[in-house]
Amino acid sequence: MAGRWIEHWDPEDETFWRDTGERVAHRNLWFSVLSEHIGFSIWTLWSVMVLFMGPEYGVDPAGKFFLISTATLVGAVVRVPYTFAVARFGGRNWTVFSALTLLVPTVAALVVMEPGTSYGTFLAVSALTGIGGGNFASSMTNINAFFPLRRKGWALGLNAGGGNIGVPVVQLAGLLVIGTAGATHPRIVLAAYLPLILLAAWCAARHMDNLAPVRNDTGAAKEAVRDRHTWIMAVLYIGTFGSFIGYSFAFGLVLQTQFGRTPLQAASLTFIGPLLGSLIRPVGGRLADRYGGARITLGNFAAMAAATGVVVYASEIASLTVFLVGFTALFVLSGLGNGSTYKMIPGIFHARAVAQGLRGEEAAARGRRISGAAMGLIGAVGALGGLAINLAFRQSFQTSGEGTAAFWSFLAFYAVCSALTWSVYLRRAAAVPAQPRLGHAGV
């Protein structure tokens, strides 16, 4: 190793993995989780800031939904360049840089967060927080390269789950401030994150590594774009991660707007769903490692449709208790599905490499190469699902004053995702036994 660059990396070699690779991979995983965790907190910052925006701010519910939608959109778009930045600059180097850039939206929000600030200014600062969403793409691409195929479901699930927990943590921070200092002190939340951002950057610089074998490969990106499985998995990831991030942004506003909760009452409930969804994500990856990602994903979408039906029923009878049960189930299931769908990605491209006649490390290397490029695209499109959810809520509340119409559209989409998972990754595998079994690759 020279200058924090590792020249040789072969995690599929069991001897290398046992003697060297596992220790190094796990060290990079833990500090990747820390940086991604802070990134998610900053990305979802405005789901908390809007709870502090009382009548004196002059922003109506539709305007607040548009604020969080803007952050979601920018976070989705920047995931594409962040994916390829790892190979261009190195995983360690980019983690340090991307962590430090989080100071920009945090300081900007610290300056402008007060009554009298124009809506356009709030919109611009909300857009800046979107860069926190990019950290996920670079982190997942980086960790994907460190682990062998048989361990990717667990590693990617743990990396993403630890990052996702940044959502309920920032919401808990907002709850703590509202419950103690009151709803007029949002700057306390913002100031608390400044030293945490610096800590994440320092830890990445001190403890992480760059992998020299991971080089920018425009050919891999082009192949990933052309491969239909990239876009099929992107649709499925809209259903899982798009739901998780969209609901995380919108939950507090839905409680305030549809059920008349105060900021403190809303804040005391909003963190529970994202926390459970984050904690269970590694379980989804582990189950996919064991039983196959497609099987877990199919069952998960069916359960999400059922949970959405519960939420629709709760909205019609105006029961907050039933609503919370259904919505919390949606968070848990979206987290489980996040783990299983992301495990499917490297498995799919490894299986396709085997189908093309490659074997052993050659097949594994090609699978890592294409899946690493595909992950950023899939993650970006999946995050756009969060934007769609927020815009659907905005339109539903503008039209009818409640979110029932939005939930009906989500239910229909989960049905589409179920059909797509079964028809592409389960029915075909059963109907064509001569082809490599995707289940062996975790699909």
Overview of the molecule:
The chain has 443 residues and is mainly α. It has a single domain, classed as Growth Hormone, Chain: A. It contains 18 helices and two strands. The protein has a two-stranded parallel sheet with strand order 1-2. Helix 11 crosses helix 17 (360-400). It starts with a strand and ends in a 12-residue tail after the last helix. The model is unreliable at 430-441 (pLDDT under 50).
Total number of helices: 18
Radius of gyration, taken over Cα atoms and rounded to an integer in Å = 21 Å
What count of structural domains? 1
Secondary-structure element pattern, one letter each: EHHHHHHHHHHEHHHHHHHH
- Overall pLDDT confidence: 88
Which spans of ≥5 residues are poorly predicted at pLDDT below 50? 430-441
Give a count of the beta strands, DSSP E runs of length 2 or more. Answer: 2
The separation of the N and C termini measures 34 Å
Structural class: mainly alpha
What's the main sheet like?
2 strands, parallel
The shape is globular
CATH topology: Growth Hormone, Chain: A
Fourth-tier CATH superfamily name: MFS general substrate transporter like domains
Q: What is the helical fraction, as a range of percent?
A: over 70%
Strand fraction equals: under 5%
Q: Tell me which CATH architecture applies here.
A: Up-down Bundle
| Lateral arrangement of strands in the main beta sheet | 1-2
User: What CATH first level would be assigned?
Assistant: Mainly Alpha
